[in-house]
Amino acid sequence: MFVLFTHYQTTPLEQWVEALFIQHGITAPGHLTMAHLAAKLNIWVYTMDMSSMAVEKNGLFSINVDRRLSAKEQWEDFLHELCHVLRHSGNQMVMPDRYVDWQEQDATNFQLYAAMPLAMLKKLALPEQKNEMIALLSEEFQVTYRLAEARIVQIQRRVLQGIMDQEYQRLTESQFTRYSPANWSDSTRAIMNKLEQLKQKGASVDG
Fold first, then answer.
1. Cα–Cα dist 160/7, whole Å
2. Could you tell me if 83 and 111 are in contact, meaning their C-beta atoms sit under 8 angstroms apart?
3. What does pTM read for this prediction?
4. CA–CA distance, 40 with 24 (Å, rounded to integer)
5. 106-146 pLDDT, tens per residue?
6. What span, in angstroms and rounded, lies between the C-alpha atoms of 172 and 186?
């Protein structure tokens, strides 16, 4: 299903996630579990009846996952907190709101990329209907319908952006070609030569 991704543009964060997974041999949906990622990344994971959170103590990292959530929700919470462990530092309680918002948005994007990595998505035979795509991703990657739909919408948006960027580049290049000196008419060339002469004369006077 490479056609769907022909114009898809990855972000630096998505490239970072893909490289991280390749580095640790995380290459198949079966590798996407809390136990497997925690072992690969040397992070202790436990569950309690409290909100999911990442904790750092003496340079060691752990993640508590709210065990009151469903299995799919626990997995998604784990990925969100994993981003904080891998990419963020500091206590959000004393951070400026704007920086906290950035960290949370970063973690939300990381969650999408890590839950349904591009390299794995490209190997799937995705159906044409959006609702069928969502159902397939939810089952294949063991994520909620909400997250699967968010990834599909994100992909569609990126593909559209890629098409628009390509069209803009094509139009820009065609305009450049049209106004290239090689395509000037004799009258245009004469006018431009005259303007250049006046410009050089003016420059010598100013000097």
1. 8
2. yes
3. 0.75
4. 7
5. 999 999 999 999 999 999 998 989 999 999 999 999 999 99
6. 24
